[in-house]
Each structure stands twice: as structure tokens, then as C-alpha cells.
Amino acid sequence: MNPTIKVEQVSKSYGKKNVLNDVNLNIPKGQLFGLIGPSGAGKTTLVKMIVGMEKADAGSIQVLDQKMPNLALLQEIGYMAQSDALYVELTGEENLKFFASLYKLSKQEQKQRILYAANLVNLTSDLNKRVSAYSGGMKRRLSMAIALIQDPKVLILDEPTVGIDPELKLSIWSELLRLKNEEEKTIIVTTHVMDEAEKCDVVAMVRDGRILAIGSPKELKELYKTDNFDEVFLRAGRKQA
Ligand SMILES: Nc1ncnc2c1ncn2[C@@H]1O[C@H](COP(=O)(O)OP(=O)(O)OP(=O)(O)O)[C@@H](O)[C@H]1O
């Protein structure tokens, strides 16, 4: 079976700045894949290309056997961007309804998905408030609910737990693991939090637009001869320097 996400020899520049350099990834169905690396490494640019929001200068990207970008595939890709794209004059529920209406869902499915997604991120009791009155963390949570609304096969979450309290963070991670284990969702998460990276099946370390190392957290710890994942991150960076 082909991998759910296939990135082949992808490069990208903005003007003269080379942001990604010959990136190759194969992410099979049901894998939880982490992208880590210092700020500016190219993680967001890479996930935006996988979603189809940016075009590669060279190379190709396939998701679910289709070449990206591909509008029809948005039904199957849930994307949570780093900055929230919400309608702040609408309530949380109205936002969820709006995004749900963009997808092929029956009215009944729409209702169920809104209940599920709001409950997952603990927003049920705040759904009637306008988003302009939400805190930063509540907006992040609403963005995550929107990413899940159409029950996509692929979830791409760019720093999903920034600004979210530790208890909810744990419940979000346990749901991500459930989605992977029970529903075989394919999930990409970018993160700066090393204990989150350790929950991934495979982690890629990105720096200066290149993948420096890729493997399971255990393999990366062995490679960099440490028990501590923070140290893996630091040593991978140093090796390149
Ligand atoms: N639209 C753009 N135009 C010009 N430069 C850009 C654009 N988007 C990103 N960049 C540059 O590309 C590089 C990679 O940015 P990117 O957002 O992909 O990094 P990142 O690894 O996601 O960082 P962070 O962890 O801080 O989110 C940075 O130097 C950034 O300034």
C-alpha cells in the first residue's frame, strides 16, 4: 500500500531565501508523525504544502494517492494552522456550523460532529459566546475542533497545544492517540514540546529546511546516545553546526 502522505524531493524558496531543501517523507496510514525543529526551520511551510496551501518549487507531494494541491481532498484533510482563522463576530457554535457546512455532511452528522468536536476540546459550555470574547487558549481549542469537524482521514496540526492548560493538553493527546489507534487516522503534529514529540510514532527533526534525522523517539535517543529527548533536539542541532 502506498503511504498516505508522500513527500518527494520537495524544495521551496521565498525570494532568495531557501526554506526547504530536498525533503522526502513517507507517512503510512495510521501513523502519528511529529515534526520538530527550531523556529524558522521550515515546519509550517512543509505542512502548508502537504495541505495544499503552498506550492513546492520542485518535487511532488501526494496525499491519499492524489497529487497536491487538490481542492477535492480538503474533505479528507483537517488542518489546524498556527494562527487562528476564526470569525470573531460569530459564536463558537456558529463557527463550527459554518465550517461543517463546507463539507459533505448530513444535518444529523453535522450536529453530531459539532457536539463531538466541542466536547473534545472542552468548549461545550462556551459555544454560545462570541469568539471575540474567547481567550487565546479557547481560540486554539476552537481551531482544533474545526480541524476535526469533517472527520477527515488525515489530520495536520501545527503546534496544536500552545496556550492550552496541562490537563486539557493530556486529554487532547489521549484523543489523538485514540484517533490513530482506533480510527487509523494519519496525523502530523508540529511541536516544540519534547514530551509531545515522544508520543509520536516517528519524529523528523527539521533544521534549515532539511530533515536532519528521522526515526522513532527510541531510535533517535539511541542515535544521539541519550535518554532525554530534549537532549536529542540539542545534539541534532549541534551536529549540524
Ligand atoms: N510567505 C513567506 N514569505 C517569505 N518568507 C517566509 C514566508 N513564510 C515563511 N517564510 C520564512 O520561511 C522560513 C521557515 O518558516 P516556517 O514558518 O516554515 O518555520 P517553522 O519551522 O514553522 O517555525 P516556527 O517553529 O517558529 O513556527 C522562515 O525563515 C520564515 O521567515
UniProtKB/TrEMBL annotation:
InterPro entries xref list: AAA+_ATPase, ABC_transporter-like_ATP-bd, ABC_transporter-like_CS, P-loop_NTPase
Annotated ABC transporter domain residues: 5-233
UniProt keyword Coiled coil present: no
UniProt key word ATP-binding: yes
Pfam families referenced in this protein's UniProt entry, alphabetically: ABC_tran
A GO molecular-function descriptor: ATP binding
Keyword field: ATP-binding, Nucleotide-binding
SMART domains: AAA
Origin superkingdom: Bacteria
Protein name: ABC transporter-like protein
Organism name: Neobacillus massiliamazoniensis
Organism lineage string: Bacteria, Bacillati, Bacillota, Bacilli, Bacillales
